[in-house]
Amino acid sequence: MNNAKTKPVEKRTSARRRETLAAYGFLAPNFLGFLAFTSIPVIISLFMSFTHWNIFKSPAWVGFENFSSLLGFHHEDARLVPNDPFFWQYVYNTVYLMIGIPIGMMGSLLIALMMNQKLKGIVFFRTIYFLPAVCSGVALLILWKYLYNADIGLINQMIRSVGGALYSSPATGLMTTVLLAIFFGLTMIGCVALIMLLVMYICSRLGLQWKEGIYRVLLIAFGSGVFIAIGAYGGAVHSAILSFISTPPDWLGTVQWAKPALIVMGLWGGLGGYNMILYLAALQGVPSSYYEAAEIDGAGPWAKFWSVTWPMISPTTFFILVMSIIGGFQSGFMTANVMTGGGPAGSTTTIEYYLYQTAFEKFNMGYASTIAWVLFGVILILTLATWKLGGRVVTYE
Fold first, then answer.
1. Which of 24, 72, 127, 330 has the most CB atoms at less than 10 Å from its CB?
2. What digits encode the pLDDT tens for the residues 182-225?
3. Domain range summary for the chain, segments of one domain joined by +
């Protein structure tokens, strides 16, 4: 009788053991690959960050000398200057290029709102907007490099032809300048309005309430200041536009235009990409009953967006923000390598591209490992700070 009872137990135990061994067998290739190509190299790079190693000689232990050279400062002619000025320049470049993150997020949300409409053929438009995300990155970079060409690029040719036609007579030129100034002013006011709304939302989630009417007062004051400044410098604005049209800039060949050109290119490729898909999925996950309840309360389109849509998609916004910050610090290599070579004068070299140059062009592996670990520390601190703030302002259903 006891034998009859123990046999099913032994069978179950044997079956469990076989399932466990099979699971370990399936996990083993991935685990060994992670161990060999990720974990062990990461540990070795941490050790190498404390050494001088140029591949051709054995590593020499130097302690924190690499970190001091990278992050430290020294006095020179009564001035405090960085030990590695290139690193801080490339940090500035990286942060500057990340200006496109909030603009891209707002643009992706706007496109997702349009793509969420129940219209005939909407699937076709969703596909068209998402198409740049699935194209080859190098091919797109080469395409944009030719578009930005100062002499034969399509962008400068359009600026010359369209601008020349609009400014062919004083009347049309003056009208174009006025319209462009109004558009620029309204764009600035709109961006500030969105930033202030976001600040108000964060403050409300943190329990800090703005005084009634202060939002409108600040926005009116800023808008008035913008248009007063545009009016005061109207002649200079007109002259600048004429100069821009007659001699379009060398987008990738001048320091002042190279980074803005890369930001515009990134926005073109990212507005309809994965962020739009994430926002579209979040919008389609908002229960329709919430909108119906808001309509019963008399809420209009803007009130419904601010009271229902925005809180419900805030987890997606938080996720996109965190991943964009991480990606922003880890990006720039392919763009600089294909389009600009990090120039002109290092204006498009990011931390990632500097790491590549240090490791694989100068063969200074120890210093490159130091850059990598400093970058890891910055990303970790910013991610933790964003996560702590996001936990207080994000609405989870």
1. 330
2. 998 998 898 888 888 888 877 877 777 777 688 888 889 999 99
3. 2-42, 85-139+255-369+380-397, 151-248
Quick check: 290 and 312 in contact, CB under 8 A? yes
For the whole model, what pTM was predicted?
A: 0.87
Residue 93: Cβ within 10 Å count: 24
User: Which residues, other chains included, contact 366 with Cβ-Cβ below 8 Å and sequence gap of 6+?
Assistant: 48, 49, 50, 51, 52, 53, 54, 59, 62, 66
Question: pLDDT digits over 298-319, tens only?
Answer: 888 888 888 888 888 988 998 9
pLDDT tens-digit readout, 76-85: 888 889 999 9
Rounded CA separation 355/386 (Å): 25
Phi, psi angles (nearest 5°) of residue 332 = 110, -15
Report the top-level CATH class of 85-139+255-369+380-397: mainly alpha
